[in-house]
Amino acid sequence: MPAQPITDADLADLRGYAASRHVTAADLDEVVYELANSGAANAYNNGAEPGLDDDAAHEQLHDQADSAASTINNSGLTGQLRYLAGHTGTAGARDLIDRAAEH
């Protein structure tokens, strides 16, 4: 899904929601990795990196996703929420916060 614009008000709402569910940045680390790698899998399945053989393309796309997810996770809770909401919308981000709260 293409990134969606997220307002400061959206982020404040999501930060408050995460706090109400006792979800911290550490709790969202794996969620960010999963979403980033889901995007990598979609890119791979749609023929990204056609100049590489299958294994190399798969590895490159997932390595890039892991690197991006690490950078996002290192940016803290606000960066994570901006990324999640940008790719899933604010309702989707709330669902992901709920999922993190259940683990």
Structure report:
By secondary structure, the protein is mainly α. The chain has one domain (8-102). Helices cover 79% and strands 0% of the residues. It has helices spanning 8-20, 25-45, 54-74, 77-102. The longest helix is centred in the last third of the chain and has 26 residues, at 77-102. It is elongated. It starts with 7 loop residues before the first helix and ends with a helix. The model has no long low-confidence stretch (mean pLDDT 91).
Q: What proportion strand?
A: under 5%
Oligomeric form? single chain
Overall radius of gyration = 15 Å
Low-pLDDT windows of residues? none
Binned, the helix content reads over 70%
Number of helices in the DSSP assignment:
4
Order of helices and strands: HHHH
* Strand count: 0
Observed structural traits:
0% strand; single chain; 4 helices; mainly alpha; 103 residues
Short characterization:
The chain has 103 residues and is mostly helical. The chain is 79% helix and 0% strand.
Draw up the topology in text.
Layout: H1 8-20, H2 25-45, H3 54-74, H4 77-102
